[in-house]
Design a protein that fits this description.
alpha/beta, six-stranded mixed beta sheet, 10 helices
Length: about 260
């Protein structure tokens, strides 16, 4: 399986997953033209659309892609299907449901918090996490609450350290600046900031980073690290993991 990262809008990413027979699915197409360009460039046939959540900057290209490519399978969470929040959705997914692509089983995780219908797709050592887990950060908590979001990130934190993260936005450099404010003096965060700057200077995305590196540098996966606990308590958190996470996420909202 190949993964092609497609920049969309100002800082979004969609992803083409391509099998050995040049069949493809696209994850989170916020707009159709960049996806169509990638389909033509790669010489693939689009068969399905996978959505991590219902926000417009992840689903905006669905209508045009369906119109152009005929009957496509449009997958999203069962919650979003029930609410009618994803255009042309054909199937609602729940954690534990069966799905496969390119000879690989796809694991599904329900990860509410950013939205109540957020899901992640895990395939061939990669996780497509939408706006729940970013590189060095996490999404805003719009529909859930802080403990809910922390529990969702706890699910993602339990994936193997070699898991590569493909998320919805290129926020990495800004996220690392915030991480450095939460854990000043962290050599790991400083090194990752230099890495991110180098990658972006070359015009490349920071996507595909390993979860193991996130566990060392992403404050939203480090609610049990002493330095993060200290920063959270300075902001009024209690000892509870949800409270520690919430204090850090609230600080990021104002950063």
């Amino acid at each position: 399986m190949r993964i092609v990262t497609i920049p969309c809008l100002s800082d979004n990413y969609a992803y083409l997953l391509i099998d050995d027979a040049d069949r493809a699915v696209v994850v989170d197409p916020s707009e159709a033209p960049p996806v169509e360009a990638a389909i033509e460039r790669e010489g693939v046939t689009l068969s399905a659309i996978w959505l991590t959540h219902h926000h417009w900057d992840h689903v905006g290209g669905i209508e045009a892609l369906c119109d152009a490519h005929g009957e496509l399978e449009v997958l999203g969470s069962a919650y979003d299907l029930d609410k009618g929040r994803i255009p042309r959705q054909t199937r609602g997914l729940r954690e534990g449901d069966g799905l496969s692509f390119a000879g690989h089983d796809v694991s599904l995780l329900e990860i509410p918090g950013h939205t109540l219908g957020a899901i992640a797709y895990i395939i061939d050592g990669c996780v497509f996490s939408g706006d729940t887990l970013f590189i060095a950060g996490c999404g805003r908590v719009f529909e859930g609450d802080m403990p809910m979001m922390q529990r969702s990130l706890a699910k993602l934190r339990e994936l193997p350290g070699e898991t590569r993260i493909y998320c919805g936005h290129e926020y990495t450099q800004g996220n690392l600046k915030f991480a450095a404010a939460i854990e000043p003096g962290s050599a790991a965060i400083e090194a990752r900031a230099k890495w991110a700057a180098s990658v972006r200077d070359q015009g490349e995305p920071t996507m595909g980073a390993k979860l193991a590196d996130e566990l060392d540098t992403n404050p939203f996966l480090r609610w049990d690290a002493p330095e993060v606990i200290e920063s959270a308590k300075e902001r009024g958190a209690s000892d509870d993991a949800g409270s520690i996470f919430g204090a850090i996420r609230t600080a990021k909202d104002k950063f």
